[in-house]
Amino acid sequence: MNAADRPRPTGAVLTDIGLGVVFALGIAFTTYMLTDSWGGTSWVLDLVIAVTVCALALLRGRWPLAAAVAALIASAVAIAVSVAAGLPREPGPVTALGLAVLVGSALRRLPGPAAAAVGAGGIAVIVSARVAEHGAVTGLAALIMIGALVTGSGLRVFDKTRPDRKHQATAARRPYP
Predict the structure, then answer these.
(1) How do residues 47-85 score in pLDDT, each as one tens digit?
(2) What is the DSSP string of the chain?
(3) Hey, where are the domains in the chain?
(4) pTM metric for this prediction
């Protein structure tokens, strides 16, 4: 049995359901706001990229490295397309949130070199967005990515320093010598 065949804990399922609701509401709100402010079909690129990155974020448990790399590539392509076509700048707020979930999760779970590569990729995507435009959307994306880097790294350190729970349970049942 591999990791993909194991049943997921209830907490992980509930977290993904909540995250999916946040993603769906955020995508709907962002699409509405882009339609209202930019008009036309300016919202299409943001919608496609946000749905793609958020779907990958929800698949992070099954394919953590592949999902993170695919989202980084999609976000980098979206930045280039939005600059070239004169569209609203990417990554949008919901795309940045999905990307942050993937980067933070990768920093926590993946082996050191892969985690470092994904973290560097996240930084590169945000820096390239900031170089393309110094606006509020890219500033928000930078803050979200900083939060992901700090949280993912912090949880990685916490997981390594936390005593094993199984050991604590057996130690609590053992009488003192």
Answers:
(1) 999 999 999 999 998 889 999 999 999 999 999 999 999
(2) --TTTSPPPHHHHHHHHHHHHHHHHHHHHHHHHHHHHT-TTTHHHHHHHHHHHHHHHHTTTT-HHHHHHHHHHHHHHHHHHHHHHTPSPSS-HHHHHHHHHHHHHHHHHS-HHHHHHHHHHHHHHHHHHHHH--SHHHHHHHHHHHHHHHHHHHHHHHHHHSPPHHHHHHHHHSPP-
(3) 10-161
(4) 0.84
